[in-house]
Amino acid sequence: MSSKTFNRGFTLVETIIFILVLSVGAAGIMTLYQNVLSRGADPLLRHKGLVLAQDLMDEILSKRWDEHTPNGGGGLDACDGGAKDGRNDSGSSGNSVNCDPAGDDDDASTIGLDAGESSAAARQNWNDLDDYDGLVEDNQNGATNDDFKDPQGNPVAEVGSFRRRVLVTYVMIAAGDGSSGSPYSFAIAGDGRGTQDPDSNCGSGSPRTNFKQVVVTVTTPNNEEIRLVSIKGNF
């Protein structure tokens, strides 16, 4: 009696099913791999964007609170219009001298560049932080006139396709929710009236307070936004 050994391979149907399963799995792996490669630079771009934002914020905060702020800060009326802010007078708020002897209630300047200042000039000539309001540096639009520059007006090399802009506004102190983590908050000044700041003596329609908010926003090449916010007081 003889025995026969049968060597059975894959059928055509089994082979086709195997190829289909392998193809689907390989496609999923390649898609995941491609996503990892395409997003692998994101942390580096975010870090660079944060550095660019912090660099400009440090430059802005190194300037005076206002064009007319004396050395050491203070001594300015934040009011605008026909009312006198008496907080800087002799005997007011503990002042031993009159910081505003001229009685000028309109010392603090409006937001933006002041008379004699130019947006085309080097930033080293800007003397107060709200001169930076509206600054836009854009390496994404293909133009060169608004590329990133240092305070002296020199182009900054190897920035990459980033965009940087600045917004400066007067803000007022607003009550928080009363919790230990939120005793107060800041709100855009609006008409400039408030029970804490700006002074209620400022009269109606004044947008000026003793606090300015600086917002620096950097847009990365992946269109992610990195935003830094600082509040500086007239002290």
Could you give the topology of this structure?
Layout: H1 12-39, H2 42-61, E1 136-138, E2 163-175, E3 184-188, E4 211-219, E5 225-233
Antiparallel strand pairs: 1-2, 2-3, 2-4, 4-5
Report on the structure:
It is a single chain. With 235 residues, this protein is of the alpha+beta class. The protein has one domain (40-233). It is 20% helix and 17% strand. The protein is built from 2 helices and 5 strands, in the order ααβββββ. Strands 1, 2, 3, 4 and 5 form a 5-stranded antiparallel beta sheet that branches. It is elongated.
Q: Helix count? A: 2
Strand content: 15-25%
Largest sheet: 5 strands, antiparallel
Beta strands, count: 5
Low-confidence stretches: 190-201
The ordered string of helix (H) and strand (E) elements is HHEEEEE
Brief rundown of the structure:
This protein is α+β, with helices and mostly antiparallel strands and 235 residues long. The protein contains two helices and five strands, in the order ααβββββ. The termini are far apart.
Provide key terms for this protein.
235 residues, alpha+beta, five-stranded antiparallel sheet, elongated
